[in-house]
Amino acid sequence: MEAHKSFKVECLRYEDAWKLFEEKVGRDILDSHPNIPELVETVAKECGGLPLALITFFSEDYRIDIDQLVDFWICEGFLDEYDGIAARNQGYCIVGTLLHACLLEEEEGNRVKMHDVIRDMALWIASTFENKNEKFLVLAGVGLTAAPSVGTLFLNFNNLDEVDRGFFQSMPSLRVLSLSYNHRLWKLPHAISNLVSLQNLDLSNTRLEKLKESIKCLFDLKCLNLDNTIRLHTIPPQIISNLKKLQVLRMFLCGAIEQEEQSILFGGSELLVEELLGLDHLHLLGVTIRRLKFLKNCFL
């Protein structure tokens, strides 16, 4: 547009926002059903006074943890030209660039969000790829029951209690799987071992009780997120240590207070430390330290 001066345009006050929204929707539509006025008022409030959002209709915002976002990028192969810490630093640099360009908005707690309008534009761009294999599927909170064929699958916030035995059998190319915030999910099927290409597995904020032996078959796994799995009472030996390519392991508030004897979290920290020492590529570890002995063992 050859603009030589930039300045911030404030969002509209609610009264002005509602007037604009009302003009675009039309009085005839607003009066066509008694339930419509209450619904459209809710939609108008969600737009937050942003003029462009007020004249289009889109899904709600979601606050994204920056660390997890970079994890996803690394495991999707977006940062393949970099290695280890360099890839993570480049990811943070990209987030900073997107914030500066106002394509992301900064949130509290090291999080960002994408405005509905920007998000819809991004999904539209992704859907126009000529290469039909380059597809992304986001199904957060939609109650998915059938198994899609994709490379990235977000199933968070779906209120799942368990996953059908055959669900993962047709997904050998899946690289990123997020099952986070399924607060009823308590176990994973043995068929998860079929995800031979999986690089990122997010099980955070679930009620998972035991880490399956089948997970150690995920030889390409780079990121494993077990944050806030406070019902997890069993992590068998030689599962974590078998994930030789693991770069990121998140275990904040991981594990129930009472652990089974065969769990690496049982008793002291010796077994957990032994598992971690076998991970040559691990460069990011998040763990809740319940005993100072854990730190001592780590640095011996």
CATH superfamily of the largest domain: Ribonuclease Inhibitor
Assembly state (oligomeric): single chain
How far is the N terminus from the C terminus?
61 Å
Mean pLDDT: 79
Element string (H = helix, E = strand): HHHHEHHEEHEEEEEEHEH
Instruction: Just give the CATH class of the largest domain.
Output: Alpha Beta
Tell me the fraction of residues in β-strands, as a range.
Answer: 5-15%
- General form: elongated
The largest sheet, given as strand count, sense and whether it forms a barrel, is: 7 strands, parallel
Radius of gyration: 23 Å
Q: Helices and strands: which structural class?
A: alpha/beta
What is the CATH fold-level name of the largest domain? Leucine-rich repeat, LRR (right-handed beta-alpha superhelix)
Q: What is the helix tally? A: 9
Number of domains: 3
Beta-strand segment tally: 10
Tell me what the CATH architecture of the largest domain is.
Alpha-Beta Horseshoe
Report on this model:
This protein is α/β, with parallel strands linked by helices. It has 3 domains: 14-54, no CATH class; 58-129, no CATH class; 136-299, Ribonuclease Inhibitor (Leucine-rich repeat, LRR (right-handed beta-alpha superhelix)), CATH 3.80.10.10. Helix content is 29%, strand content 10%. The protein has helices spanning 14-25, 27-30, 36-46, 51-54, 66-76, 85-100, 116-127, 270-277, 292-299, and strands at residues 63-65, 105-107, 111-113, 137-138, 152-154, 176-178, 200-202, 223-225, 248-251, 284-287. Helix 8 links the parallel strand 9 (248-251) and strand 10. The mean pLDDT is 79. It comes from Citrus x changshan-huyou. Keywords: Leucine-rich repeat, Nucleotide-binding, Plant defense, Repeat. Residues 159-289 form the Disease resistance R13L4/SHOC-2-like LRR domain.
